[in-house]
Structure formats: C-alpha cells, structure tokens
Design a protein that fits this description.
single chain; 646 residues; alpha+beta; Dna Topoisomerase Vi A Subunit, Chain: A, domain 2; 5 domains; five-stranded mixed beta sheet; 30 helices; 52% helix
Length: 646
C-alpha cells in the first residue's frame, strides 16, 4: 500500500518517540533530561543494566551505544513488536488518532509529482538568489542593508529577489528544461483564467524561501518593494507542497537550536526571525503571516515544551495572543504549555534588538508570562468587579475556559492558580518589602478600612487579637527608637499585620530615614498616617509599657524587640501547627497514635510559649497561650483519636 505525501511526516509529528519507547523501557531519571527531550534507559533489545539506550525526542530518533540499534518511532515499533512497516504505521496511526488513508494505486504518482515540484522550487531558490546580485536589485540590497542583514545572513536564509519582469522566473526555469506545469503547480507562476501566457507569482519583491523540517523548499514569501503594492508580504499559494497552516518559517534550524538548549521563540514575521537569529536566538520561528493554527502549535511542541510567543507590542499583537489562549487550552497536557512575551508598545523583536540590543531581548524573554496569567489578563483587564453579579460572571468565564483542558490534574492546577489570582483581586493586598504601597482593596466590603471612631476602641471590642497587640508593641517601639530599624529590618519585612493602618506604618518604617521619634512622626504625617500613629501611642495597654513610658533606653528597647519578634514568629508557627492537628483530628482513623504524639508535641510547644509570654506587656498573650494549651491537653487526656467512630 502506498501512502500519500506528507502522511508519515504528519504521523511522526503527532506522536512523541519518547511516548512510544516509554511503554517498553524504564527511564533512568538521573541521566535523562525530560525538559530537553534527552532520555536514557537500559536497551530493550539486549540484556544490560546500564542506561546506554538514548532517545532524542526532538529529533525523533533512538540509538543504543551497546547493540547499535537505531531508528525512528516506526522503526522502534517494528523491532519491539516484531511487525512489518505497514503494520507499524497502522499501530502508530491508531495511537495518534489518525485514520489510515484508503488504498490508492495512484499514490506513487503523487509522490513522483511532489519530487518534481520540489525540484522546481529549488531551481526557483537558485534563480532568486542570483537575481539579488543584479543591477535591478540595487534598491532591494539597499533595503536589506538598512535592515542590518549582512552577507552571512543573506546566505544563511538564502534571501533572493524577484524582478518586476512578468515572466522572469517562469522563463528562466522553463529554459532549463523544467516543465511549465511544474513551475505553475509549484506556486512560482500563475496561469490566467483567460488562458493567456503564465506570469510570475512574485514580482518586484524580496524573496524568503520557506523550507519544511527536512530542509525541502516548499514555498516562498515575498516582501514588496513598491509602497503601493496590494500586499506588503505575499506567501506562495496552497500547493501539493505548501500548506501555510502546517508550516513554520525556519523550522529545521530552530529545531536544531532548541535541541541544544535555546528557547523556542515564536515571532510574527520573517524579519523578526532573522533579527532574532542574528542576535543569537537561533530557535526562532514564525507562522507565515497568519494566526497560529493547531497544526503549527503541535509542530512547536515537537520542538520545545514551552514555546515563547513573542508578539508585537500593539493591539493586534495582544489580540493574537488572546486568540492563541483559546486555541491552546484544549490541547494542553502536562509539560506542554506556552509562555507569552509582549513587546514594548509599538515595537517588534526586530525593533527592540536594533534599539536596545540582544540583552534587552533576553531580559524581556526572561519575564515571559505563563499561559494561565494571559488567560487571567484576558478575563479581567480593564474591567470593574464591584458587584456580586460581575464577580459571578467572571467565575463562570474562568470555569468555562479551564473546562476545555482535557487533563484532569492540569485542570485542577489551573483552577488553583486562578483561585489564587482571584483572592488577590478581591481581597486586601499587603505589598512586601521596601516596595510596599498603600493598602489596596479592589472588591467588596471586607476590604474597607476601619472607621476612624472605631480605631481607639478596637481592642476593647475584640477587633484586636493578642498577635495584633504584639505587632502594635513592635511598631510603637520602633517609632520611638528608629535607630533600631536597620537592625530588625528583616524581621520587620516578615511582619504580616491584619490591619491596614499597621501595614502602612510598616511601610513608612521600612522607608524612613529619620533618626529620631519626631522624624518618624513627620514621615507618618506626610503619608497621611498621623491618626494611626496617634492611636498607637494612645492605646492604654502600650502606655503602661516601661520601654515606651519610661526614659529612653535603646539597649533595653533592642532586647524587647528581639523577644517580641521571636514570640511573634513562634506563636504564628504554633498556631498553624495546632490548626493542622485539629483538622487532622476530624480525618484521623480510630486508634491512630501518631495524632496523639502530634498533639503532645503541640502542647509542649505551647507550654514553652506560655513561659516565654510572662514578660512585660504580654499578659494577654500568656493567657491566650494558656487557653490553647489547656484545650490541647483536654483533647489528649480524653484520647479522642481512640474514641472516634464509637
């Protein structure tokens, strides 16, 4: 049975050889590098203990350094399953979900036809390259020089020129003995509907040959020299060789570069790819001037697990990125995804590299966003979610989007990532470190600031916990002794106050240059926090603390801060442990003694904290710790884990 042209290529593109081989071997995880498609295992064809069987997933081949077995996915199935070639094709086609073609006695004729057309396109490449050296191409050479394409680049990409003559390439190729029908069917010339003489498909254009993964010229792209041309860029029409939705510009060289560890970058056009390669980014491809298709996406994933989509920094570029999100979601699988790198406004990769160099491009690629963030941006950017209805509509859109992901585990991870982004959107956020800004709230009532008249009575009303009191003691002490801020800067950055005023005060303390208490007061006033500082200093529980009410004593203040920061950190860790232990209690099976040991450990930690909490200004914390310890002790004495289910 003969197979139609391109069937085996499509079959190999759809199925990873590591998936085929992986059913028969156990990979050596220490030697293999899955991210690069570099896999090693003991050979399945001869007895051995070492991992000498190598699979290059990107190139689609295997080789054993012991018995020297080698081949592609089809060859592996033939050898491993002891089947013939066509049976191996059928087995691989079933796995790929591709129907076998019907028996076609004329298939060999089509293969011969494709061979003749490829000969015509190769002759066209040679003709166009020769024309670039003629006087008629002077303007084209000047343009390429202005774009920064040196002689080595012109040679590397085989760039040529099609003069304005009506039958330039047609006449040249037919004069060499290539049949007129071959020149026309290869897409180099067009026959008018009225039956008149054929004319060249590309005229007065710079020519970019397009090659498939095997290096065969399958078509051309042409950039018009005339400003008033009907199309600035023109691709070959669809031919038996060329399907622009299943081809990538610079496919073969990009695959080789990606195999050596370079990131796969997907740009919009020929010149972007050339600029990237010139700048050292050899694994660059382009989708031939059209929106990326599903077939092209599969080709990209055969080259690299995480292609970086580098689109122009304009509205059209962003729209293209968002359309690609919808295309990719139903095709995602563990390890296969996309990242997005949007260029600065009004620039493409070529512009950016010329203006700021390769390092700027590399830095931008390093910040490429994962697909989940592009999905989030699409559903939230420029919108206001100030009502339950709008928020519910967002939830529905996100559920619908991730519902397209076929893999259940991956779908769950997307849900978790989007839930985290959602919490950040609808709840107050406290920026970290020196870059802290004002407390932000972008949602509902839970994010509102406390009313001014309630601040002074927050502790008495139960709005403040023991942790809040400790935070306030730390902040009040640092406000009085700003010279100690640098010493405790790391601990201060880790502080996580619950109340907006306290978050803002931390921000002021981390950024202040004041050397005394009055300077801190001035910084707080400038930040609109005079009321917060006044409320802090006026709290009764803090006014009686010696370190705040007595004569200045920086050494004693440093000891106080050391103790309070330690208690704060330990108390948060212990509360988390107790919470986890009590949650486990609900799920623990009857007779599970590990939970008893865990509760005992938590009590010991609590009793240690209770003794540490006996210092000044900490009575509330000590009482709280004692209550928690007593609760845990009661659970242990009752041995509740043994009584569950009775």
């Amino acid at each position: 049975m003969s197979l139609p042209p391109g069937f085996l290529d499509e079959l190999r593109n759809r199925v990873s050889i590591s998936q085929v081989v992986g059913r028969k071997v156990i990979w050596d995880t220490r030697k293999s590098n899955q991210a690069k498609g570099d896999m090693w295992a003991p050979c399945p064809f001869h007895q051995e203990k070492s991992a000498s069987f190598h699979v290059d997933d990107r190139k689609g081949f295997y080789y054993c350094f012991g018995c020297h077995a080698k081949g592609d996915a089809l060859g592996f199935i033939q050898q491993a399953e002891n089947v013939g070639f066509m049976e191996a094709v059928e087995m691989l086609a079933r796995e790929a979900g591709m129907p076998m073609p019907a028996r076609d006695p004329q298939a060999s004729e089509r293969i011969d036809r494709a061979t003749k057309l490829a000969a015509a396109t190769e002759a066209g490449v040679a003709h166009f390259r020769l024309q670039l050296r003629t006087a008629a191409a002077a303007e084209a050479r000047a343009y390429l020089d202005r774009r920064g394409l040196d002689a080595a680049t012109l040679e590397r990409f085989e760039i040529g020129f099609a003069p304005a003559a009506r039958q330039g390439v047609f006449g040249a190729l037919t004069a060499k003995g290539i049949a007129a029908e071959d020149v026309i069917e290869a897409g180099l010339a067009t026959r008018p509907d009225d039956g008149s003489a054929p004319y060249d498909a590309f005229r007065d254009r710079i020519i970019f040959p397009i090659r498939d993964a095997r290096g065969r010229c399958i078509g051309f792209g042409g950039r018009a020299m005339a400003a008033d041309a009907r199309a600035k860029y023109l691709n070959s029409r669809e031919t038996p060789l060329f399907d622009k939705g299943r081809a990538l510009y610079n496919h073969g060289p990009a695959r080789e570069a990606a195999g050596k560890g370079q990131p796969l970058i997907v740009a919009e056009g020929y010149m972007d790819v050339i600029a990237l390669v010139q700048a050292g980014f050899g694994a660059a491809v382009a989708p031939l001037g059209t929106a990326i298709t599903a077939d092209q996406l599969r080709l990209m994933w055969r080259i690299a697990d995480e292609p970086i989509i580098a689109l122009d920094g304009d509205t059209a570029g962003l729209r293209a990125a968002l359309r690609l999100v919808d295309l990719a979601l139903p095709m995602l699988e563990p390890g296969k995804t996309l990242r997005f790198c949007l260029m600065p406004e009004g620039q493409d990769p070529d512009d950016l590299i010329k203006a700021r160099g390769a390092d700027a491009m590399r830095a931008l690629l390093d910040t490429a966003e994962p697909l989940v963030r592009m999905l989030w941006r699409r559903e939230t950017e420029g919108q206001v979610f100030d009502s339950p209805e709008r928020r519910a509509a967002l939830d529905g859109r996100l559920r619908q989007a991730i519902g397209k992901i076929p893999d259940q585990g991956l779908r769950r991870h997307y849900g978790e990532a989007l839930a985290e982004l959602r919490r950040a959107l609808f709840r107050p956020t406290a920026p970290q470190g020196r870059d802290r800004g004002q407390w932000r709230a972008r949602g509902f009532a839970e994010a509102q600031m406390p009313l001014a008249e309630t601040r002074s009575s927050a502790l008495g009303s139960g709005a403040l916990s023991a942790d809040d009191l400790r935070v306030m003691l730390i902040l009040a002490t640092l406000c009085r002794y700003p010279g100690l801020i640098e010493r405790f800067e790391t601990e201060l950055e880790r502080l996580a106050p619950r109340h907006p005023d306290h978050v803002a005060l931390v921000d002021v303390l981390l950024s202040t240059q004041a050397g005394d208490e009055d300077g801190v007061s001035a910084d707080c006033a400038a930040a609109g926090l005079a009321h917060a500082l006044e409320s802090l200093r006026g709290m009764a529980h803090l006014r009686i603390t010696p370190i705040l009410s007595g004569p200045p004593d920086p050494a004693k203040a440093a000891l106080c801060l050391t103790e309070e920061f330690a208690k704060y950190s330990a108390d948060r860790a212990m509360r988390s442990e107790m919470s986890e232990a009590l949650e486990d209690l609900d799920r623990a099976p009857e007779g599970d003694m590990r939970l008893g040991r865990r509760l005992n450990h938590a009590v010991h930690r609590r009793q240690t904290a209770r003794r540490a909490a006996s210092g000044e200004a900490s009575s509330a914390v000590g009482e709280d710790t004692a209550a928690l310890s007593d609760r845990l002790r009661a659970l242990i004495e009752a041995r509740v884990w043994e009584k569950k289910g009775r």
